[in-house]
Amino acid sequence: MKYVIESPGNDVRASVKLPASKSISARALILDALSHSPYGIRNLSDSDDTRVMLEALTSRDRDFDIGAAGTAMRFLTAFLARVTGEWTITGTERMKNRPVKLLVDALHSLGARIEYIGKEGYPPLRIFGGALQGGEISLSGGVSSQYISALLMIAPCMEKGLALHLEGKTVSAPYINLTIQLMKRYGVEVVRDGQTLITPPQEYEPAPFTVESDWSAASYWYQIAALSEQPEIELAGLFKNSLQGDSAVAGLFAPLGVETTYTQQGVLLKKNRDITQQLTCDFVNEPDLAQTFAVTCALLNIPFRFTGLQSLRIKETDRIEALKAELRKLGCLLTDGHTHMLEWKGERCEPEQSPVIATYDDHRMAMAFAPAALVRPEGIQIADPMVVTKSYPHFWEDLKSAGFRLTINQ
Fold it and tell me: How far is CA 204 from the centre of its chain?
């Protein structure tokens, strides 16, 4: 199935209730379980990723299929390693090719017993849960921050606690800080000593918790504002001092002419004419925004050079290769030099007559390309559009409420 998306015109007016933060929901579910909280979590995300994690944490089953939920794979691997019992955890074919060896090796060194059911270093896993000794380990800060967060959240439950030494430059550091701040909400302190995160043995304290709206989801509305002439878009439930790293999107979109005004309800987006001629940005702290900015800049004819993309090749798909392939369909030739960089110097090729954007089982590919309808008179076709349920289940309904026209093309 494909969606054909057509523009509502140049002046997008919309008031949007964004989904709850998937990143906060995932961490809150683990911390809620570790604290044996009786309160529950308010405004929990209704995304696929959150649903599979909630099912795993509340189910009596011992065999879990978490689909394409990478966060659930990492967090649950660590969580189940310290829960007495035998468990198996698997996922989609793509998940079976997303590496998990660094996390498993770290857990082994802390006293866990985990076996690979298939290819070594990758899911599916068999986990023999039990008490973890803990201690000191070193881990590259250049790997997925979810490995680090997964270890931190179970650290207080280890007999010796955990001293985690991060080596080299840390990617997605705001996500690690988010984990530490949420642990604090549940009564646990993590001490920073340079590149070392020290978590003594402690007990989590149950606490009522409400999840805020998702800044990552907001990025697509910033993109719509950037591609519109005179937009006025209200996004409810966002906070200026959010713990979410992707709240940086407000400042990052300023060079593309998007003005952010904070209100009592959230934010209001408008457009000015102060737009950069080219954009250079390091996304080491906000890798999930890279697709949004690559598509936006290409559609605005703004050359760009993006760095800090180490984790993009091990996401739901190889996002660097996916962006190169799909933007080529629109006539833009991107280069990466087989590094952690993505660049467009304005080089073009003949665009396809009726391009269909492949989504690669990646929700962010669908949402990053959908706003292209604003600058293409014929609209844009998106394949497998329901991949958005991974993080933003009502994305298409929100687009329709903003005036976009959606039709199904089989």
Answer: 26
Contact (Cβ atoms closer than 8 angstroms) between residue 179 and residue 170: no
Question: Same structural domain for residues 297 and 331?
Answer: yes
Number of domains in the chain: 2
- Predicted structure pTM score: 0.89
CB–CB of 127/87 below 8 Å? yes
User: Do residues 328 and 372 share a domain?
Assistant: yes
Amino acid identity at 259: E
For residue 250, the cross-strand partners are none
Check if 49 is active-site.
no
pLDDT (tens digit per residue) in 158-176: 999 999 999 988 888 999 9
Domain end marker among 210, 230, 259: 210
Q: Are residues 190 and 222 in the same domain?
A: no
Q: Cα separation of 312 and 274, whole Å?
A: 30
CA–CA distance, 321 with 279 (Å, rounded to integer) = 20
Amino acid identity of 268?
A: L
- In terms of Cα–Cα distance, which of 352, 385, 380, 392 is closest to 366? 385
Active-site hit among 288, 361, 362, 398: 288
**CB of 97 within 8 A of CB of 122?**
yes
**Domain enclosing residue 287, as ranges:** 2-19+213-409
pLDDT tens per residue, range 113-158: 999 999 999 999 999 999 999 999 999 988 889 999 999 999 999 9
Pairing relationship of beta strands 191-193 and 196-199 according to DSSP bridges: antiparallel
What residues have CB less than 8 Å from 142, skipping those under 6 apart?
168, 169, 170, 171, 310
Neighbours of 336 (CB within 10 A): 17
